[in-house]
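PT: before anyone asks, these are the final sequences, not the draft ones from last week. 430 residues across everything. Please model them as a single complex and drop the result in this thread when it's through.
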Amino acid sequence: MLAPAMAEVVAVAAESLAGSRARAARTVLNQVVLPGEELLLPEQEDAEGPGGGGERPLRLNAGARSRVRVVCGPGLRRCGDRLLVTKCGRLRHKEPGSGSGGGVYWVDSQQKRYVPVKGDHVIGIVTAKSGDIFKVDVGGSEPASLSYLAFEGATKRNRPNVQVGDLIYGQFVVANKDMEPEMVCIDSCGRANGMGVIGHDGLLFKVTLGLIRKLLAPDCEIIQEVGKLYPLEIVFGMNGRIWVKAKTIQQTLILANILEACEHMTTDQRKQIFSRLAES
Amino acid sequence: MGKTKLSKNLMRMKFMQRGLDSETKKQLEGEEKKIIGEEHWYLDLPALTKRQSFLLCEDLLYGRMSFRGFNPEVEKLMLQMNAKNKAEVFEDKTEEVDVSDEEMARRYETLVGTIGKKFAKKRDRVSYEEHENGDVKLPKEKEMFLKPRD
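LR: through. Structure below.
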């Protein structure tokens, strides 16, 4: 996936250095973009006449504003009235489903280091128990705090059975650059929904963040093929951690190796490996 | 005598608004909004909200998975959560009622009697027992003290 992109990147870089004019986001969809590039939103392409300076005057009239509400996702930032790219990767766009206009633009980038984001489901390791909260290592810059009341059916008398070293599957409720991240193991209705302590045994290993998103895509063939091999259980954390468990240790290790390796395999190589496994 | 013209600020006070009817209120509100709208300055920039999460960018499946019956609870959860994402689940079948309406009515009929018996005095309980062949009759009215007439 990355090798052909390198050739593209060189061509693109040359072009953008020569032109040094902002390109329309629409024309760059699914192409590689580099940090520092500015992209125009669709509604601004008409206004951008020859020599467009980028200065937008303040207006006093309450005229009809044809504003489309666009969301800029990860890898993009607002710069004046344009989008500024901050990560290298492919630009993606998603149309709005239920009509609340604009859609989402984001950059599909690859990285190993996780930065806590609110709403993400992650796998954490309990590192300390202090008073009413647990300190959970999620792979970010600081350990997240998890209150003992944030479990389903937990009360002050009825504490959850969590020890140091346990694996926790939870989601973030507070995650920004100014505060310590906080996570919980219940949803907004108070139900666990599969969150909480992950059972004993099994194997936890780390992969890149892009692979997690690829494996969790709705049409991922890898997961479908893996599921046909033998009975197993997998938990994916958005912080790059995967926990797997199968009936025997050997099966667990095979599964872990497959998931780690499938990032760099082509479809054919993968099919070969699966057919060899199915035989044995 | 001509009507004294009350000032605009006085008319905007709460105690003056109570007597107005809804139409005049709406009209006044509309005028206020127009004044405020014209005075507002705004930047003519596109509305760009910044979201860091990948969740609304890509439709991702639920993070816990189990295959071939390894963990039945997780398999149930998988169906639930993934269906929720696709917004397919819509409970079409009506809830099965445990007890039919007729039986409920019959139960309540006798219930009135049994609970009433609990609070009835010993004298009145006799009247309950007389009618125990199925239908329940309320006890006779309580006899109050009658003041003697002169």
